[in-house]
User: Fold this.
Amino acid sequence: MRLLLAEDERSLSDALVRVFASEKYEVDAVYDGESALDYALSGIYDVILLDILMPKMKGTEVLRELRKREVATPVLMLTALSSSEDKVAGLDLGADDYLTKPFSISELLARVRALIRRRGQLVSDNKLNYQNISLDMSTYKLSSQSGNIKLSVKEFEIMRYLLERPTFVAKKEELILKVWGYDSEFESNNLEAYMSFLRKKLKQLGAEFTINSVRGVGYELSSPKD
Assistant:
């Protein structure tokens, strides 16, 4: 899961990044509204945590622009503005949830999990299923009736991305953005090595599908015989 954290208070931002990292979230942190908008428009995030009072561009302005451009990523507003009028204004602009400072870490994590579930990406038992393969979102295990295999963090993120879009061709550039982040220098040619590892693991589990390369575009899930 990849989060965008837009919070200009550096100490709070650093603390939240550590918390989310301990919960196995990938986090990109930015410290002003213009950067928040730039990053958010990439469309690679599962949840955006957006402070309201930021330099260069207020969080409400960022939110307004995102919804204007039809970016539907769930947004959780983090702010010291606690009046009902402020909350209503944020929600009316398209925020999905609103949490006032100071807040408890446990509540913040619960609200992020709720937004992810609400987006419809998680199925029962916290798993993603496709054909005879299941991906456990908590344990990072890929499994079938014949057994299970623990994936690395990057393998898990790639597999999750593909299983959420089983009928689409995943573009290389989109995969790299989603898994390695906005500022990554990861080379697209190296992505094939990860795909090779995943193909072997799918084959070991007796999967009814594999990951096929689409020349010049990216990857898709399809029958091994195709």
